[in-house]
Amino acid sequence: QGRMWAYTVGFTVLPHVGGFLGWFINRKDIPVWYEKLKKPSWCPSRKIFPVAWTVLYTGMGYASYLVWNDLGGCSSKALIPLGLYGAQLALNWAWPPFFFGARNMKMALIDILCLDGLAIGTVCSWYRINKVATLLMVPYLGWLAMATCLTIRIWKDNPEEKPGKSE
């Protein structure tokens, strides 16, 4: 019983690790560079993002635990559903370094479009395994849809500087 508690906490906390590292590494660039970008009127306030990601990462982490548990741990049945989850999580963690770190909006856009596909694939693969896990991912899919539209708009409205030009 104590061991299952540790698994529950581990799976639930895991998504936060990459999210925190992405924020920590890019925290100095966010207020300076990001604030200067042209953003649409519907762009959420910067203060909303940490709250939203805390809720979303907690939900997706717990959902992944439910799927892992229902499939009996690291079994061959878990390979595709948890593999898709892991791949989409890796792309989720890669977005901030592309966008904020490298300031490469085109790579960030490619990343988030691939992330969308993997997140949808994850949810579809989880549907037959655990309905609660699937429902826990729905807010994440909604937020990703908004984040994808926001990434597209920022990419289109802020042409990247040509190499060799300084700020």
TrEMBL record:
It comes from the Eukaryota. InterPro entries: TspO/MBR-related_sf (IPR038330), TspO_MBR (IPR004307). Keywords: Membrane, Transmembrane, Transmembrane helix. It is found in: Membrane. Its main location: membrane. Pfam families: TspO_MBR. The chain crosses the membrane at residues 6-26, 47-66, 78-95, 135-155. Signal peptide: none annotated. One of its GO terms (cellular component) is mitochondrial outer membrane. The keyword ATP-binding does not apply. It is a multi-pass membrane protein. The keyword Kinase does not apply. Belongs to the TspO/BZRP family. This is TSPO protein.
